[in-house]
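Contributing new records

If you add data, match the layout below exactly. Sequence lines come first and carry their own label; structure lines follow with theirs. Keep one chain per record. Anything else will be rejected by the validation script.
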Amino acid sequence: MGPILEVANLTKRFGGLTAVSRLDFELREGEILGLIGPNGAGKTTTFNIIAGVYGADEGEVRFAGESISGLAPHQIARRGIMRTFQHNRPFGGMPVLDNVMVGAHTRFSRNPFSGKASREERQQRQRAEGLIDFVGLAGLRDADVGTLSFGQGRLLEIARALAGEPRAILFDEPAAGLTPAELDRLAGIVRGIAGRGIAVLLIEHDMRFLLPLAGRVVVLNFGARIAEGTPQEVRSQRAVMDAYLGDAAAL
């Protein structure tokens, strides 16, 4: 089976700074791929290019065999790529269920909050309820998002991304700020997402969380790929150790 996402010769410059340089990698359906590197390595810039926030100066991003380079974020989301962010972004003043329903906006042919109980809306609401259960927030469907803990807000972000029925999800540091128990739950959710055949691209600084999860890892430094392979293969490579300042504990 071929890749669902292909990044080819991707380059992005900001003035005189090259944030991403001739980057190549592939992501397959149902795979968990880690994108790692020290601060400033170009990881989030890569995410933003894939998601359509930035345009690339060179190279191409292909999804499901189609070029998505130059498309707007909502067009890319509609094609099946969703993302989470480093910081929770709930829609304030709305209950958990409605927040998840918003994530399905790319799949609705009409306003999901029109008040008219169409079959489509009922189906989407049932799906949202199932996703809330999946991430472990079943008892909080009607709770205002302002009452959620930080960790619960992170789970809400994941449910909302899944509501868009993605074929790939980009996770931007999902483990940041979570307790050990929340990290265990998150790891199970990520594995469950991949088990549904959804491709997972994961940026993470916490290697104790990422390395047991990822089937493959791409390592960036100064915008360029310096290593790729299984976690076991990349963690002992000299270039990777040098990028992490020789801190073996970080890997």
